[in-house]
């Protein structure tokens, strides 16, 4: 027997050891497989840090634990975490794991979870994360496992429930909850125990509970087939108030909720009821002296959905209540309240609020009155009276106010109102009884971490026609504010359909908005779309006010705004701006316009639309531009500036002067249209750097990962050097501009993608344009200086660009300049080529130098160095320059714009042969060069052959001009055809038809130029307009 027991002990030890060691051997495989399987079935992303296996945590079940569990949403809930959990355990029946065909799950446990549930206005919820199952025939249960859940628990959890459909927000911290039952049964009893350290509930903008302590032990009968839950034995306590809840709740479908619930507070005192008043339940609440009786009960019965409300009723009676806190010198006495809210049907219009009397005394000042409301939807009818004085200083000495450091002042009210909305709308003022005054005097309020609020005076009066704010004079921290106004139909406040109308005049000499700016929300919560359910938009989304406001100085962030003015009419979804204006530092702006759907844009994510007209005498953009971080600071993360999808706005701008970096733009005029995640510029024109610019195009972020631009740009009378110094586009596309004195005109069409730094990705840039030089001169450019030096012709050290017309394109990261003619005194040049966006160059300068220009440079008997140099170099190529009127030289410009390299080749001179013969000889030479190189590297020689063909064509044209003008076209075509034929035949033999096509492209440059022209011919923003 001992051996048997010893053997069993050994087996158990080995088994326990194996269970403990198993995760360490297969941890990585287990983690990867669990994540993959979970994410394949979820629309959210599941992640965790580690996995563990234990038979001790939930003995005798086997516990599989996930540490650092996170479930993160996607779509409208992108980056919003549904759950963050220190540890999640799934308890598995040990014997089913070892011997059974199916693994049985017995328990589910969360340790320190943070759960955040959001339900948006459209009903979408971040907990809806399972992918829909494909339609298929019913399948047999999977053999891998089954759910026989018996127990679940949450330890020290936090829960946020934010439901925008109900306008409700509930927060629970320090949550400990457990439940048990036969969860696999269709009908079972769920036994629960719940404790919450802090419970806060906000509904329809009203705070019902704030940091209340709650516990609830309940047995709930669950009928899963009917989705009906019936309360059985239960005990609910909130702070010191014990409540009884009875009834049932049912979810028959996805849209309807059925209920029949009742609650009451039997055997409770006024003190226990007082404990649920926000702020009343203090640490010394046990020492509070209070007496009086209370009756608090209610019911809710019927159907609830988007259009239907259940019937409900709440009754509250307090008799002879008195309260005195041990730490405060004063008390509140003679508290008597009789109140009932009754809505007998699904129509809220049938609801009545009946408070026949209420009274209390704080210190030495009594307050009393009554309030009755009926038909709030169709015809709000009010009968009320409030009379009394509230000494705020005495209130602070009688009731605890956490976080309030100072409170004083007097509030006096003596108001009577008995009227209906219909009476006021019909002008039946003789039937309306509205009279009285409401005053605040010398009120001071200072809370922890907030500026002091001081209301020097507030005076309001009621009359049958309106409520008038006669005077409001206050200081809010450093800010002052004065206001007056009126509300024409105050009873609309109680209606969900009618609109309050009125007017408001406001003045302030100084207002510091920075004092009232709140901290940014938590990172994940800040990404949740639309406004928080705490917002009271449903109360204030029915108003129509005329506003006239002025602020002498407004401080917001780092901006100092002065002389602000605003006049217009405002409703939730239509703002008519008759006149607004201000100055920001040295800048001024003014305008008018109309903005639609502002309220729906803020709270329902609808489209904001409208038209705004802006004008300015001077506007400096520099203060609004992001500054570079200091070297010691971490550089800000670069990001794309996204154009909102839900804005449809047109902005017309007319600015006399705009400062941008160190440039001044004058007479800026144009239109910006923001729509469909794109911003379009329509006919923007301005004077800048002594010239004129025009821009039209768009910036599009419909694909946020690849923002694109498509722009037409025109410049007139623009200085080369100033353009180079101020425009990155010029620095990239025309780096030679830094060496050019003079002006130019240009028209450019370009498109491409933008990087995260909002700078064009030049590798994706596609552009075509036209450049016209105006009395320009290239100076101090090293290659030209070298040409002038070698030829000993001083005026060739610079390049005179007199009214040249140049076409260019950007393809595959290269700027291609079409060949153009330049005449420097008696030296003819043809210039063309390309440079990369990395500033690497490949240009050719074909020069035709008159012999006399070289000979006349000789001094005395000294030989001409330029002519000698040419003769020597020509002999290397077998060319005789002793005869002929002109000497032809091709200069090859390569290298980088900052480190250029100059190569050259002497071409046959005029006079040795006819134009036709020379063209033929050059073509043959080209052919021989092509043969030699093609044998080595076919693709490289192809480029050389194209260069020779181009040179032949241009040489033929230049020579033709000296023979007879009428022969130009004939000889040029013939020479081009001959050179093209010879070269094309040989190249085609060696490298195929594709290489021949490349030569055709060179020989058809005129056609390419026409294509460029076609791209630009329809856009000329700087042309004169009629009657201009």
Q: So how many helices?
A: 17
Task: Return Rg in Å.
Answer: 43 Å
Q: In terms of per-residue confidence, which ranges show pLDDT below 50 for 5 or more consecutive residues? A: 1-18, 141-145, 530-540, 627-637, 858-863, 911-946, 948-976, 978-1009, 1019-1028
Our measurement of the CA-to-CA distance between the termini, rounded to an integer number of angstroms, reads 116 Å
Largest sheet: 45 strands, mixed
> What does the oligomeric state look like here?
single chain
Number of strands: 45
Short synopsis of the structure:
With 1028 residues, the chain is α+β, with helices and mostly antiparallel strands. It is built from 17 helices and 45 strands.
Structural topology:
Layout: H1 2-40, E1 45-47, E2 50-54, E3 62-72, E4 81-92, H2 94-98, E5 103-119, E6 145-163, E7 168-180, E8 187-203, E9 206-223, E10 228-238, E11 241-250, E12 257-264, H3 270-274, E13 289-304, E14 311-324, E15 331-343, E16 352-362, E17 365-374, E18 381-391, H4 392-396, E19 404-420, H5 421-425, E20 433-447, E21 453-462, E22 467-476, E23 479-487, E24 500-508, E25 511-512, H6 537-540, E26 543-556, E27 559-571, E28 574-584, E29 587-596, H7 598-604, E30 608-616, E31 619-620, E32 647-660, E33 663-675, E34 678-688, E35 691-700, E36 708-719, H8 720-726, H9 728-733, E37 740-753, E38 766-778, H10 782-791, E39 799-801, E40 805-811, E41 814-824, E42 827-836, E43 840-850, H11 851-855, H12 865-876, E44 886-896, E45 899-907, H13 915-936, H14 938-963, H15 968-991, H16 993-1003, H17 1005-1016
Parallel strand pairs: 5-6, 24-26, 25-26, 30-32, 31-32
Antiparallel strand pairs: 1-3, 2-3, 3-4, 4-5, 6-7, 7-8, 8-9, 9-10, 10-11, 11-12, 12-13, 13-14, 14-15, 15-16, 16-17, 17-18, 18-19, 19-20, 20-21, 21-22, 22-23, 23-24, 26-27, 27-28, 28-29, 29-30, 32-33, 33-34, 34-35, 35-36, 36-37, 37-38, 38-39, 38-40, 40-41, 41-42, 42-43, 43-44, 44-45
Helix pairs in contact: 13-14, 13-15, 14-15, 14-16, 15-16
């Amino acid at each position: 027997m001992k051996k048997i027991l010893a053997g069993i002990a050994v087996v158990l030890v080995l088994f326990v050891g194996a269970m403990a060691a198993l995760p360490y051997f297969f941890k990585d495989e287990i983690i990867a497989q669990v994540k993959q399987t979970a994410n394949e079935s979820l629309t959210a992303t599941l992640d965790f840090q580690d996995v563990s296996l234990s038979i001790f945590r939930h003995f005798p079940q086997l516990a599989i634990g996930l540490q650092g569990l996170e479930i993160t949403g996607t779509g409208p809930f992108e980056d919003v975490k549904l759950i963050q959990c220190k540890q999640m355990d799934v308890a598995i029946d040990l014997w089913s794991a070892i011997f059974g065909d199916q693994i049985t799950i017995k328990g589910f446990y969360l340790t320190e979870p943070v759960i955040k549930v959001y339900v948006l206005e459209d009903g979408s919820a971040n907990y809806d994360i399972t992918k829909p199952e494909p339609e298929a025939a019913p399948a047999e249960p999977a053999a891998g496992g089954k759910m026989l859940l018996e127990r679940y628990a949450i330890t020290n959890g936090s829960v946020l429930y934010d439901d925008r459909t109900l306008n409700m927000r509930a927060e629970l911290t320090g949550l400990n909850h457990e439940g048990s039952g036969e969860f696999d049964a269709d009908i079972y009893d769920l036994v629960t125990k719940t404790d919450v350290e802090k419970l806060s509930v906000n509904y329809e903008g009203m705070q019902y509970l704030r940091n209340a302590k709650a516990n609830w032990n309940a047995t709930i009968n669950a009928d899963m087939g009917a989705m009906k839950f019936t309360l059985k034995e239960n005990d609910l306590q909130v702070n010191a108030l014990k409540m009884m809840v009875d009834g049932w709740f049912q979810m028959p479908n996805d849209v309807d909720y059925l209920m029949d619930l009742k609650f009451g507070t039997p055997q409770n005192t006024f003190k226990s009821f007082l404990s649920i008043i926000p702020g009343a339940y203090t640490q010394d609440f046990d020492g509070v002296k209070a007496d009086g009786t209370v009756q608090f009960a209610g019911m809710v019965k019927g159907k609830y959905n988007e259009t239907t409300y259940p019937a409900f009723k709440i009754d509250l009676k307090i008799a002879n209540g008195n309260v005195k806190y041990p730490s405060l010198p004063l008390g509140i006495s003679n508290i008597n309240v009789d109140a009932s809210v009754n809505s007998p049907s699904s129509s809220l219009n049938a609801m009545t609020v009946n408070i026949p009397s209420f009274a209390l005394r704080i210190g030495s000042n009594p307050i009393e009155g009554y309030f009755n409301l009926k038909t709030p939807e169709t015809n709000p009818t009010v009968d009320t009276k409030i009379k009394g004085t509230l000494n705020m200083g005495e209130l602070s000495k009688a009731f605890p106010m956490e976080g309030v450091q100072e409170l004083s002042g007097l509030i006096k009210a003596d108001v009577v109102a008995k009227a209906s909305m219909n009476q006021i709308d019909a002008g039946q003022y003789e039937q309306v009884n509205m009279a009285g005054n409401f005053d605040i005097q010398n009120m001071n309020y200072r809370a922890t971490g907030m500026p002091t609020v001081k209301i020097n005076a507030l005076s309001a009066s009621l009359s049958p026609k309106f409520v008038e704010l006669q005077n409001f004079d206050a200081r809010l921290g450093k800010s002052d504010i004065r206001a007056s106004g009126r509300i024409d139909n105050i009873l609309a406040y109680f209606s969900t359909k009618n609109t309050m109308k009125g007017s408001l005049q406001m003045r302030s000499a100084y207002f510091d908005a920075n004092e009232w700016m709140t901290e940014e929300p938590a990172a994940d919560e800040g990404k949740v779309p639309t406004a928080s359910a705490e917002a009271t938009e449903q109360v204030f989304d029915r108003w129509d006010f005329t506003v006239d406001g002025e602020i002498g100085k407004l401080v917001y962030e780092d901006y100092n705004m002065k002389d602000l003015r605003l006049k217009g009419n405002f409703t939730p979804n239509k703002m008519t701006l008759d006149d607004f204006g201000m100055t920001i530092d040295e800048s001024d702006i003014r305008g008018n316009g109309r903005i639609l759907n502002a309220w729906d844009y803020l709270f329902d994510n609808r489209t904001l639309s409208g038209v705004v007209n802006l004008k300015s005498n001077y506007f400096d953009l520099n203060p609004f531009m992001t500054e570079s971080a200091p070297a010691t600071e971490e550089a800000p993360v670069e990001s794309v500036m996204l154009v909102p999808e839900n804005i449809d706005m047109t902005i017309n701008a007319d600015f006399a002067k705009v400062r941008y970096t160190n440039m001044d733009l004058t007479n800026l005029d144009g239109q910006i249209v923001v729509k469909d995640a794109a911003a379009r510029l329509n006919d923007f024109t301005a004077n800048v750097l002594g010239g004129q610019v025009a821009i039209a195009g768009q910036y599009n972020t419909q694909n946020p990962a690849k923002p694109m631009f498509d722009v037409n740009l025109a410049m007139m009378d623009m200085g080369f050097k100033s353009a180079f110094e101020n425009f990155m586009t010029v620095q990239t596309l025309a780096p030679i501009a830094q060496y050019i004195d003079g002006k130019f005109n240009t028209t450019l069409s370009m498109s491409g993608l933008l990087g995260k730094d909002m700078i064009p990705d030049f590798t994706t840039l596609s552009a075509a344009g036209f450049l016209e030089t105006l009395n320009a001169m290239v100076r101090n450019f090293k290659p030209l200086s070298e040409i002038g030096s070698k030829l000993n012709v001083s005026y060739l050290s610079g390049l005179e660009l007199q009214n040249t017309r140049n076409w260019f394109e950007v393809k595959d990261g290269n700027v291609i300049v079409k060949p153009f003619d330049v005449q420097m005194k008696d030296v003819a040049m043809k210039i063309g080529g390309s440079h990369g966006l990395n500033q690497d160059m490949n240009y050719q300068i074909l020069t035709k130098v008159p012999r006399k220009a070289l000979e006349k440079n000789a001094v005395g008997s000294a030989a001409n160095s330029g002519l000698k140099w040419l003769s020597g170099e020509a002999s290397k190529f077998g060319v005789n320059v002793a005869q002929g009127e002109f000497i032809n030289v091709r200069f090859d410009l390569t290298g980088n714009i900052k480190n250029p390299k100059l190569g050259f080749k002497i071409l046959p001179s005029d006079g040795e042969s006819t134009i036709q013969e020379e063209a033929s000889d050059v073509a043959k030479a080209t052919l021989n060069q092509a043969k030699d190189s093609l044998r080595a590297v076919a693709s490289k020689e192809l480029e050389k052959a194209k260069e020779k063909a181009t040179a032949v064509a241009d040489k033929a044209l230049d020579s033709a001009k000296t023979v007879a003008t009428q022969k130009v076209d004939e000889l040029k075509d013939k020479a081009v055809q001959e050179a093209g034929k010879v070269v094309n035949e040989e190249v085609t033999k060696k490298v195929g038809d594709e290489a021949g096509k490349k030569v055709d492209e060179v020989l058809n440059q005129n056609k390419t130029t026409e294509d460029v022209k076609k791209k630009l011919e329809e856009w000329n923003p700087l042309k004169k307009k009629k009657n201009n």
